[in-house]
Amino acid sequence: MKQDIELLNVISQNSERGKDGVSHLLKISNNTNFNTVLERRLKEYENIYNTASNLCRKDGNEPASVNPIAKMTSYVTTQIKSMADHSISNMAEMLIQESTTAVTDITKQVNDYCGSNQKILGLAKQLLSTEQTNIEEMKKFL
């Protein structure tokens, strides 16, 4: 049970970071093709986040949120990087870096997971696949 909650929290936090990053870039991007990919990613992150939150609450727990200070730091960093370079290539690079960090985090958690809940494990693998797809899609914009 403890492992289930830990993995759900990792899923929740990573999908929340994904939602936040993509939402921010959607506000500053004016490239239709790029925005179409971002909107698809946002829907996937939202779906995963909502599923993880519901699974957590089903067991009487609240999903862990991203630390507000870490969230603000990420926002400010993205603001600074995007102000310095508004190019789609730069935005794609930022998303690749975020997704690469998420792939590492999620892969470690999946490999360490000793629980037996296949629904939670499947959701983690879905997020992992989403992050890997995100990396591949963003490479087209470099």
Structural features, described:
The chain is mostly helical and 142 residues long. 83% of the residues lie in helices and 0% in strands. It is built from 5 helices and no strands. It has helices spanning 2-28, 32-58, 68-84, 88-112, 118-139.
Q: Summarize this, please?
A:
By secondary structure, the chain is mostly helical. It has helices spanning 2-28, 32-58, 68-84, 88-112, 118-139. The longest helix is centred in the first third of the chain and has 27 residues, at 2-28.
Unreliable segments of 5+ consecutive residues: none
Order of helices and strands: HHHHH
Please count the helical segments. 5
CATH level-3 fold name: Ferritin
Spatial extent as radius of gyration: 15 Å
How many domains? 1
Mean pLDDT: 90
In the CATH hierarchy, what is the class?
A: Mainly Alpha
The strand count comes to 0
Largest sheet: none
Q: What structural class do the secondary elements suggest?
A: mainly alpha
Tell me the span between the first and last alpha carbons. 42 Å
Shape: elongated
The proportion of residues in beta strands is under 5%
Q: Let me know the CATH homologous superfamily.
A: Ferritin, core subunit, four-helix bundle
Helix content: over 70%
CATH A-level architecture: Up-down Bundle
Which key terms come to mind for this protein?
142 residues; mainly alpha; Ferritin; 0% strand
Question: Topology, pairings included?
Answer:
Elements: H1 2-28, H2 32-58, H3 68-84, H4 88-112, H5 118-139
